[in-house]
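Structure (tokenized):
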């Protein structure tokens, strides 16, 4: 029998108290007020005061949790416990979850909401998850909705991968999905509001029907409904903030290069990027101070176009080149990329020794799925060695699945064909590199990477011998059904062999019949009109556009799109004043005109590249 009822009926109070009310709770410390409180209303007031101080809640969490068993004050206790950090709330999660066995739907909604931080805590237990799943069968729609929301949120957080697949169109797609989820959760919140409104209306009708219902009871009912609405609004606000955070990375890329960053490919679509990064290194007195700029510009360009495979030429063979390549891969790793560089492709070139590198997405192949084969001495004895030596044409033929002897002989003949009789040239100036990826697409992917001769050393043959070998090896691979992609800085314009890919000989015709050129004819791949060339000591003019970079692919694939990358605005913005400074200095001092064009070009190379990356997206026929 309640104390209030005894007083109203004129009955004696317990413990010999006669008609005298107990002393009011002490003022000051809300914990002491709670300990001294006799009436439920005083307990609720003390708990609400405690909830204003999270540190106080944390110190007395166990004591506060004990009030969860008091049906009249448990909601105030829940409100206080919600101020705890996840690790502080974890020891009391079971007690909160125990409230889910009660019949009060409003209480269940409050308990479920209180449990949200625990579900994001790393020690969330399966028992609690089972209790939540039981609520999915509850007769009250509000309870079911909140339980489903909590379980959905926990499942999503548990399955989220560390990569923020922290990139641009995918981030937009994820943001859209989150927005849709926000709409769904808003619907759930509306349902919770409707349920709360219905409970409030029921409480008001009950108050009118029962004459002795006190004003305090009515106030608690209204407060509970308002608290439920506030909790739903807070949840929606938190989700909106998460969506804005996901958009941040995509906005960065938009500001860096422009609108419409690419989305990641899916299924049978594969996007390739061919890029010569001249003298790639992070060291030296010239490149070193500008390396931070160049690293950002290179990484952001790759992130903007989101290729699945990137072939890079001119990685310097020394420590600086290896470190630069590894830094690029390191910056891309969080976005799902891995990479590897080859052995030196021209070990006898002194200070000009270089490597090639390949970067790929792990959705295509694992980090350890790459093998390199250098095509050494195509026209020499070593080129005819057995396939056990990995750096031979024989080893490459074996890797692709071709007849070894036929392929070795055909490549040697193709190399010798344009050269003078008795020539001593036995190999490429920079060896071709066959990069083989063991993909999860059902077949190996071969990338033939090259940085061909400019024609300055071997006279009239230009780089015809080297191009012949590419045509011969690629057309044989395509005839055998291999997925071989040619990605190279062919230097055909530099070697004055612009029409070599469209010649009328039988080898070229086979090459064109079995494969496709990704980038349409006439598209330059240097950074024209920003490159310059000096014609005379008195005049500096813009260089002519040149086409040196190519991607070729087998006709078992179809082209979806092909283009060159836009120039990095950051690099171009820094290049303009640097180039102007060089030009003004040459005007004041004529002796500085010598090599002026190269110096102007170098300002862009040191911050990005002197080549436009070629980007081609292709799709396997039948997918």
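Design, position by position:
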């Amino acid at each position: 029998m309640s104390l209030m009822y005894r007083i109203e009926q004129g009955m004696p109070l317990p413990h010999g108290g006669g008609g005298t009310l107990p002393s009011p709770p002490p003022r000051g410390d809300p914990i002491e007020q709670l300990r001294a409180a006799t009436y439920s209303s005083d307990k609720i007031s003390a708990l609400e005061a405690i909830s204003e101080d999270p540190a106080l809640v944390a110190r007395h969490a166990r004591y506060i949790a004990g009030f969860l068993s008091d049906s009249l004050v448990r909601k105030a206790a829940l409100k206080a416990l919600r101020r705890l950090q996840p690790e502080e709330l974890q020891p009391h999660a079971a007690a909160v979850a125990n409230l889910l066995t009660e019949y009060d739907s409003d209480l269940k909604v409050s308990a479920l909401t209180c449990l949200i931080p625990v579900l994001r805590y790393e020690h969330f237990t399966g028992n609690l998850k089972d209790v939540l799943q039981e609520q999915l069968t509850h007769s009250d729609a509000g309870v079911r909705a909140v339980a489903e929301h909590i379980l959905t949120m926990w499942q999503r957080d548990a399955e989220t991968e560390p990569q923020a697949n922290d990139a641009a169109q995918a981030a937009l797609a994820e943001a859209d999905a989150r927005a849709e989820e926000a709409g769904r959760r808003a619907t759930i919140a509306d349902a919770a509001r409707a349920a709360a409104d219905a409970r409030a209306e029921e409480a008001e009708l009950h108050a009118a029907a029962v004459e002795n219902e006190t004003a305090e009871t009515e106030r608690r009912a209204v407060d509970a409904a308002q608290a439920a609405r506030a909790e739903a609004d807070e949840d929606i606000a938190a989700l909106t903030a998460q969506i804005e955070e996901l958009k941040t990375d995509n906005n960065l890329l938009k500001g860096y290069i422009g609108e419409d960053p690419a989305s990641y490919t899916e299924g049978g679509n594969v996007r390739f990027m061919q890029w010569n990064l001249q003298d790639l290194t992070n060291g030296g007195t010239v490149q070193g101070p500008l390396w931070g700029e160049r690293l950002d510009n290179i990484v952001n360009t790759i992130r903007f176009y989101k290729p699945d495979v990137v072939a890079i030429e001119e990685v310097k063979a020394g420590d600086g080149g290896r470190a630069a390549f590894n830094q690029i891969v390191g910056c891309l790793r969080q976005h799902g990329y891995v990479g590897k560089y080859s052995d030196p492709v021209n070990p006898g070139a002194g200070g000009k020794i270089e490597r090639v590198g390949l970067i790929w997405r792990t959705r295509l192949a694992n980090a350890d799925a790459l093998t390199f084969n250098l095509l050494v001495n195509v026209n020499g004895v070593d080129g005819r060695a057995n396939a056990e030596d990995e750096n031979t044409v024989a080893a490459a033929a074996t890797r692709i699945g071709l007849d070894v002897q036929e392929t070795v002989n055909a490549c040697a003949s193709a190399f010798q064909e344009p050269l003078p009789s008795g020539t001593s040239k036995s190999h490429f100036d920079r060896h071709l590199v066959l990069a083989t990826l063991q993909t999860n697409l059902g077949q190996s992917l071969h990338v033939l990477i090259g940085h061909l001769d400019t024609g300055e050393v071997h006279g009239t043959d230009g780089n015809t011998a080297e191009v012949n070998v590419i045509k011969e090896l690629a057309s044989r691979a395509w005839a055998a059904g291999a997925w071989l992609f040619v990605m190279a800085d062919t230097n055909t314009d530099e070697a004055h062999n612009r029409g070599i890919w469209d010649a009328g000989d039988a080898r070229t015709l086979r090459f064109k019949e079995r494969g496709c050129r990704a980038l349409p004819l006439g598209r330059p791949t240097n950074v024209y009109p920003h490159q310059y060339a000096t014609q005379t000591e008195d005049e500096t003019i813009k260089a002519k556009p040149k086409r040196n970079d190519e991607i070729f692919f087998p006709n078992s694939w179809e082209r979806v799109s092909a283009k060159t990358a836009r120039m990095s605005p950051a690099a171009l913005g820094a290049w303009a004043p640097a180039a102007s400074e060089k030009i003004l200095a040459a005007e004041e001092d004529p002796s500085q005109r010598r090599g002026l064009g190269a110096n102007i070009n170098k300002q862009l190379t040191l911050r990005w590249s002197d080549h436009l990356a070629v980007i081609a997206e292709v799709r396997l026929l039948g997918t």
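Reviewer-requested clarification: The chain has four domains: 29-84, 103-160, 167-255, 270-620. The chain is about 45% helix and 15% strand.
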